[in-house]
Sequence to fold (660 residues):
Amino acid sequence: MNKKYFPQILAVVLGVCSFSVMAISPGNKLLTAKLNADLVAPLPLQKNQQATYLTLGDNNQIHWRAASGESLAQLDQAAELLDWRYPVTVQTQGKSIPGLIAATVFLPEQQPGLVALNPATGELSELLRVPTPAFKIENICLSRAAGDNLSLYLLDERGTAEHWLVIDANGKPDAKLLRRVPIAPNSKACAVDDAQDLLFIAEEGVGIWAQGASEESSPGRIAVDMQQPFGKLPGSVESLAVMPQGLVAAIAEEKQLAVYSVQQGKFTQQQQIDLPQTDEPEVVKAAYVAEQKSLALIVNDEKTGNHLLQLPWNPTAQQPPAHPIVTVTADVQTESMLRFGDAADDPAIWVNKKRPQKSLVLGTNKQQGLFVYDLQGREVQQFNTGKLNNVDVRYGVRLGKKVVDLAVATNRDDNSLSIYTIDPRSGKLAFSGSVATDMKEIYGFCMYQAPASAAQPEGALYAIPNDKSGEFQQIQLSAAVSAADKNAVQWQGQVKRRFSVESQPEGCVADDKNQRLFVGEEDVALWTIAAEPDSGTRLEKVLGAGEILVADIEGVGVYQGKNQSFLVISSQGNNSFVILDAAAPYALRGIVRIALDATKNIDGVSETDGLEVSSIDFGAAFPEGMLVVQDGHKVMPEAPQNFKYVSWEKIRRALNLPTE
Fold:
């Protein structure tokens, strides 16, 4: 490496509201020869008040070095590629040790893994190895999603990436394959913005893409910038580096850096910086030093060495969210559906009133029928009765001389209601018949059981399906039992009320105790209306779609406490669940997200359609009841959709809700 000073003064002024980048001071130069290495990564980590670096060189060995070039720690293992996170707390030998974690690829095995640096002791050690993939690793990048799990992306230039959990939220190193992710083909580099949950991918000869970084992200990508004439990039991007509210791309053949602002999913190229003293700047690494409000960029060029650029960098301080989201983890997950695709949809909870620990969860499969699970998530019954969408349960329904419980579901095959009897003692379900409707596209559903009366001691029973058009029907169910065959039941339905929302609905729940219905209009709001069929058709808004309740508004349930009840609503647009008081003025109690639990091998929850919640004591795992939700995207391992059970006690503690 030569020791020439980098002569150019790079004046970069970014006129955006999120941050400002002022002129770079004129002393930018090549790093001293003592830091000569194939790859140099600046760290936000000091030693004796001096900057430090990770380097790959000296037979491809990893060093932690001071700015003077002194080796502070060395790992006697050949490697290539580097990405890091700091600080990360790791559990080793029963102790929690905060330090720096670097991902690399060990040679000659081409095996990805982690290296740990303990700044207090100066120890640099191998921490973990990830199984070697079947493809040549083009590049690697680390990701730290909400919940503090650390994961690693391995790029295959053929258009996929493996996404591995490497350190769980408890600090335990553990390699578990989360998912395989479709990415752009011929991908050269990647970088993850943890704060904005974005994975950036550089596609050779095309441009830069962004997609969700967390394991619960849906497939799909959006363009950050394309090569000319479709965008502003003058050439192919070889390397990417993330900085707070920004992104830097190295464009090798053009000897340039492209600088972008990154704000809430919007990407703006602010400047292209010429690097005339380089030959082909192929790697850019960055570290932000918050105390100095500056950014250290190192551009690596195989012929001219490593160039250090110091940038003043002052991102806007992020205001804490007005409504923070807390995380909990699921306790149980059901067996997966039989095939991939949009299948699992809506759950219901049947309570065994004599033995609550023997209660059941009913879940619809809108490609197949109804599935029944125990409280351990094991499938105990299955009904191939059509494309069922939503299901609900009610108790104590008289059929002749018998009293049974009922499950009813909307059947999209023929726009009917499919009815199942449930033995109150054993929990055994049996298909009992159907009720036709005049709906064109039957969809969501709930049931309402009116208070007991002299005429109907068990209370009138109503099925309340909705149509994609926005129409709701309140249908009173009744049954005639054959005198000759007591198992032959003829179900009938009589429409007692019709009301509508203006666009597509789905979620629906009845609060029998307080005689109210809550219905969701997916892109608009959660509404309420009195439950009795003679109560009119006027809807009142509970909460509109927006920052708190992010469309689609999907499943909704009522946690019926002894002293206070709560609404739980699926906020599908940001993979969360909104908790409100179930009585006017419907005060917000908090927002919950269900995160991955590596210890139990249960992934997080995303794209939830339906949910149900109960306050019953189901035993040791669910002493205060449970929330059951559909998981639209199952990972670790990737599998068809399923349902997750969450202890209400966890939710209550996370949101500091009042106890009973």
